[in-house]
Every structure is written in structure tokens, then in C-alpha cells.
């Protein structure tokens, strides 16, 4: 049985709540559609729809299966799109990605800068977190990206590293918001909002370690992707603070830089190793300029003297 | 806003199933965070700090040459799980290299060669001269472990995880074994880092030796930062897990920290209890750095 096809038929019946209308939409004969739904019910061993005079309604089991069917069908669609990208690779189109929290102005500037450098060249730009970017760069569905370090490096080439300073996003009435800059130590014991770990696990851990290194151990860490939800959390709590690069201003919350920039995200362009053709090079040049000029990234962080420990087992 | 530092340190110990005491001092300002810092503790291998400090103090005073090589026969070594204690053949090592082994892997055999060469009295006199009057050694490593065999009888290693047998161990009683206090051990380290134990190249070498310890599961685990230098010496006996060391930040901040714990569990492997030493130390050091 073609499970995906049957689930697609089932989803249409569920949406239309009517076999006749669903059959029409799917351009199949109604008896054939009914048979397929019965076959799916036999396969799964549950009744999915109650057939009445006026139409078809979902059983409780049907509602569960519908929710799962959505997930499966979306994943299948994504798979087809990805494969399509690999096969197509539309000539003249560079498939590129930017990480979250880069800022809308930066993305707009990047698109403009690329078009200026590559007249007629198309940039298919998506927002992808670093974990997805490295996976897609390796898989060949992405030509170039802007990633945050540390990230997996096998099979990838990287442009020069830039540093994106982090600051604290606070409620306007938070006493710390009154100061032009904040010592990260003053955030010790607060509840911290940070991007979801799954999006860049090594960076998430490194950011928390750097916090600890500078005297800030949060009482709890909330993993939040969107700026809206982040702001809601900050405004609903008294001890909540988010660590992120300077966001677009919004009433209610205040972003403050951290004294001496102890926390920065290392950022660079990335591409599949050995595949930096002219379009990739134009993108990385444009990205480097935009990151410095629009996003305010800085080329170097102060050099640290390192103390490797005997447990590291190698001399330095 | 924050829970008081001492409550957070106590919670770090409690969460790991241990009780603990601590003394953390800012080596340059003398500011201190303390928790049971004057209660005597059985030092176990932390006492090797006193031994190695004494070697370098004697060297600086010209009474001993730490480059002197010693013959170490294959037999008659103090027992232990590392270093010369597990090696099979005769060796020849200088006093200071024996000190490195005693710190790097808590080598009991190497430590006992030093204990016997320097003498318990010399080490105790050195501590007294430094004002560490509550720091006293009554036996070398072999002597210490011999009391455990006597206390547990013939039951062998199994006795060391048997709560009833562990309760009989005199090495857990600070009045009957090598002992000190968290405050004394932090003071010894502060003195070493302030050049008060010895000066010049000997002082530099002593501090370098105290930085070669291989383990990082206790004090160092609380400071997983590549630009922070952690030196120290652990000490372990059934239910006891200790470490005393120095944490140095690149901004010049340096802190002597002594942490002594006792676990309710008699299990020989308790990673959470090891890590609690680092957690407690970092809470204290962060508080000292914040000036609270």
C-alpha cells in the first residue's frame, strides 16, 4: 500500500468532511476513494471516519491519525523539494542561507549587495540555523551560507571569522536597563533566554560557558527561537533576560551592550569544500562586507592566553 | 536577588549527596568565603601539598638539593593505583621529579620516598612556621593505608564500600590521622602563590609542579575555561573527596580554594560528588570576583 498516497486521500476527505467533494478535488471516482479509505482503516486497524448522510466526520482515532499524517506529508513534501533543488540547481541561482538573529536590515542589505555584484544572478536565500546549514551544505542542497561557530567543519570551507557581540535584552523597567552598558556578572542568577540548543549545540554550550567564565550562572535557561516570544517572556517575568545581538528596537524592552564585549558569536561564510565557484565567492564577499557594515560585526576578538590542562593529553 | 552564597554552596554539596566544608580566599586581598572552614578534616592525599611545599622551602633555604637522585628499589613501595606504586622495576628519580609524580597522579610510592627523606617532623615544623598550626601529619602514605587494613581486618577491598566497615576507619577521624582545616589549606596555597613559602625560581617551580595534576574531575571541572589556570591536589578516602588548589584568571584575579567533602554513599565512584567540589568552588570564586 502506498501509505503516503492513502494518507493524502484521507486528509482531503477530512478537510472536505465529504467523500463526494473530496473525490472531486482529488479527481478520482468516489467509489475508488471510499475503497482507499477503507483500505487505510484496515491497514491501521481503526475506524477513521464516521460516514453519515450529510458527510464524513473524524473519529477520535481519525483526529490522531490526521495530526500525524500532516507531519508525514509535510516531511515528504520537504524531501521532494530538497531533491528537486539538487536535480534542478537552476542555472544562475545561488542557494544560500543566513542564520537566525542576523536582523532584517542585514538580510535586506545582503540581497542588495549580492545583486549589485552579480547582475542577473538570482539569490535563493533562506533562514536556516547553523545545524541545518552545515547539514545542507554537506548534502549539496545549499551552495553557501553564513554560519555561527563552533560548528561541524568536515567537508566545508570557511571565510574569515567575524565576531557578533551579544547584549542583554531587558524589560524597560528593569533596574539594569537604566545603565548604558551592563557587566555580564550583574546577570548572575537571572533566568536566561537563549536560542534553542538544537539549532547550534556547540554555540549554545559555548555561550553558557562564556557566561560562567565571566561570573554569570543563570538560575534557568529558556530555549526560545522567536523574538516575539522572547519579548513576551521578558515582559512577563521579573528576572528574565535574553542574550542576543542587538535586535530592532521595540517599545517595552531595552537592549544593552555588555561591558568589554565578553560574549561574541563567531560568524563566517561557509561553502562545500572545493566548491567555491564565482557565485559563491561573490556571495561570501558581499556577506563579509554586509556583516561588517550593516550588522556591526567586528573582525577580531582579543587574543586569550590559554592554559591547556594535563587532562588534555597534548602539548601546546 | 541571589540566594546567599553560603546557601548555594551548601546546596551544591547536598545535591550531590555530600556534606562539605570550604575556604576560598582572594590571594591578594585576603577576602574569604568560608563554610565550616575551621573544622578539622582528614586530609588524605591533600597533605601531599604540605610535603611538596616543604621540599621546595628546604631547597630555597639551601638545606636540600631537589635535583638529588634517589634509588627506588622495585620492592617495598607504598601501595597505590598510579605511578611508581604500580610500576614493576627499580627506578632512579630526583626529589623534585618524585614531587611531580606525587602531584600529577597522587603517586603514593613517590610521596613516601619524599616523606621518608624529609621526615614527618620537618613537614610539620614547616607548617607550624607558616602559622598553619592545625595542619599535622602523623603518618606517611604507607602508614595511613596500613591503618585501613588493620581497621577492616581480613575482608579486603570489599570492606571499603561496606558502610559498617567504613564507619570503623580511623583515617576518617581527623584526630587520628593526617589533618588540617579548609582555612589552613587555603592559607598554605595563598602563601605559596605570595612567595611566602619560598621565593624566586624555586617558588616558580613549586607553582608549576602544583599545576601538573592529571585529574580534572573535581576543582578544575568547575572552571571549564581555556584561559583560566587551575592548580591543585586531590585527596580521597572511603566517603571522602577533597581538593585544594588555586584558580587564576587572566585579569590577575587569583583565588586559593580548599574543598573537603564527605559522601553518605560508600561507593568508590561518585562523579556527582567529584563535580560538586568544582561547583562549590566556582560559586565561591564568582562571589569573590563580584565582591559580594
UniProtKB/TrEMBL annotation, chain B:
One of its GO terms (molecular function) is hydrolase activity. InterPro entries: Beta-lactam/transpept-like, Beta-lactam_cat, Beta-lactam_class-A. It holds the Pfam family Beta-lactamase2. The keyword Oxidoreductase does not apply. Keywords: Hydrolase. Residues 22-261 form the Beta-lactamase class A catalytic domain. The keyword Hydrolase applies. It comes from the Bacteria. This is Serine hydrolase.
Amino acid at each position: 500500500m502506498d501509505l503516503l498516497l492513502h494518507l493524502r486521500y484521507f486528509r482531503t476527505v477530512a478537510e472536505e468532511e465529504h467523500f463526494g467533494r473530496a473525490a472531486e478535488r482529488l479527481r478520482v471516482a468516489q467509489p475508488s476513494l471510499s475503497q482507499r479509505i477503507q483500505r487505510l482503516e484496515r491497514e491501521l486497524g481503526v475506524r477513521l471516519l464516521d460516514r453519515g448522510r450529510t458527510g464524513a466526520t473524524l473519529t477520535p482515532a481519525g483526529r490522531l491519525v490526521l495530526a500525524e499524517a500532516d507531519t508525514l506529508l509535510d516531511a515528504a513534501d520537504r524531501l521532494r523539494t530538497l531533491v528537486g533543488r539538487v536535480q534542478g540547481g537552476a542555472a544562475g541561482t545561488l542557494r544560500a542561507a543566513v542564520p537566525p538573529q542576523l536582523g532584517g536590515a542585514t538580510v535586506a542589505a545582503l540581497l542588495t549587495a549580492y545583486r549589485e555584484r552579480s547582475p542577473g544572478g538570482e539569490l535563493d536565500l533562506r533562514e536556516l540555523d547553523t545545524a541545518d546549514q552545515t547539514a545542507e551544505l554537506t548534502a549539496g542542497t545549499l551552495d553557501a551560507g553564513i554560519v555561527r561557530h563552533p560548528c561541524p567543519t568536515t567537508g566545508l570551507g570557511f571565510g574569515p571569522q567575524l565576531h557578533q557581540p551579544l547584549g542583554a535584552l531587558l524589560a524597560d523597567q528593569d533596574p539594569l536597563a537604566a545603565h548604558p552598558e551592563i557587566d555580564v556578572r550583574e546577570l548572575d542568577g537571572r533566568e536566561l533566554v537563549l536560542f534553542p540548543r538544537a539549532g547550534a549545540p556547540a554555540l549554545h554550550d559555548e555561550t553558557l560557558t562564556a557566561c560562567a567564565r565571566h561570573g554569570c550562572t543563570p538560575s534557568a535557561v529558556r530555549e526560545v527561537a522567536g523574538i516575539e516570544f522572547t519579548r513576551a517572556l521578558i515582559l512577563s517575568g521579573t528576572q528574565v533576560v535574553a542574550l542576543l545581538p542587538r535586535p530592532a528596537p521595540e517599545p517595552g524592552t531595552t537592549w544593552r551592550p555588555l561591558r568589554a564585549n565578553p560574549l561574541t558569536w563567531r560568524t563566517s561564510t561557509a561553502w562545500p569544500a572545493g566548491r567555491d565557484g564565482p557565485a559563491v565567492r561573490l556571495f561570501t564577499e558581499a556577506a563579509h562586507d554586509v556583516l561588517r557594515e550593516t550588522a556591526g560585526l567586528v573582525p577580531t576578538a582579543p587574543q586569550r592566553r590559554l592554559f591547556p590542562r594535563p587532562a588534555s593529553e597534548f602539548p601546546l | 536577588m541571589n540566594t546567599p552564597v553560603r546557601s548555594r554552596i551548601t546546596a551544591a554539596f547536598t545535591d550531590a549527596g555530600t556534606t562539605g566544608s570550604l575556604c576560598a580566599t582572594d590571594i591578594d586581598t585576603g577576602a574569604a568565603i568560608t563554610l565550616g572552614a575551621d573544622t578539622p578534616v582528614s586530609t588524605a592525599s591533600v597533605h601531599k601539598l604540605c610535603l611538596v611545599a616543604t621540599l621546595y622551602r628546604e631547597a630555597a633555604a639551601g638545606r636540600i638539593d631537589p635535583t638529588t637522585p634517589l634509588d627506588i628499589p622495585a620492592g617495598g613501595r607504598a601501595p597505590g593505583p598510579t605511578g611508581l606504586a604500580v610500576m614493576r622495576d627499580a627506578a632512579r628519580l630526583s626529589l623534585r621529579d618524585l614531587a611531580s609524580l606525587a602531584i600529577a597522579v597522587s603517586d603514593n610510592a613517590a610521596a613516601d620516598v619524599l616523606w621518608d627523606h624529609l621526615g614527618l617532623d620537618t613537614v610539620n615544623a614547616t607548617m607550624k612556621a607558616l602559622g598553619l598550626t592545625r595542619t599535622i601529619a602523623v603518618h606517611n602514605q604507607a602508614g595511613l593505608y596500613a591503618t585501613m587494613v588493620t581497621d577492616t581486618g581480613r575482608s579486603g577491598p570489599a570492606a571499603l564500600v561496606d558502610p559498617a566497615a567504613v564507619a570503623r576507619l580511623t583515617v576518617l577521624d581527623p584526630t587520628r590521622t593526617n589533618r588540617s582545616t579548609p582555612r589552613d589549606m587555603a592559607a598554605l596555597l595563598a602563601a605559596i602563590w605570595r612567595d611566602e613559602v619560598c621565593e624566586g625560581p624555586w617558588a616558580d617551580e613549586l607553582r608549576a609542579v602544583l599545576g601538573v595534576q592529571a585529574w580534572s574531575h573535581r576543582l578544575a571541572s568547575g572552571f571549564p575555561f581555556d584561559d583560566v589556570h587551575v592548580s591543585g591536589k586531590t585527596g580521597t578516602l572511603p566517603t571522602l573527596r577533597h581538593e585544594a588548589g588555586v584558580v587564576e584568571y587572566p585579569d590577575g584575579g587569583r583565588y586559593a580554594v580548599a574543598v573537603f567533602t564527605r559522601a553518605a554513599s560508600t561507593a568508590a565512584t561518585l562523579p556527582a560528588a567529584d563535580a560538586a567540589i568544582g561547583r562549590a568552588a566556582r560559586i565561591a570564586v564568582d562571589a569573590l570576583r563580584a565582591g559580594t
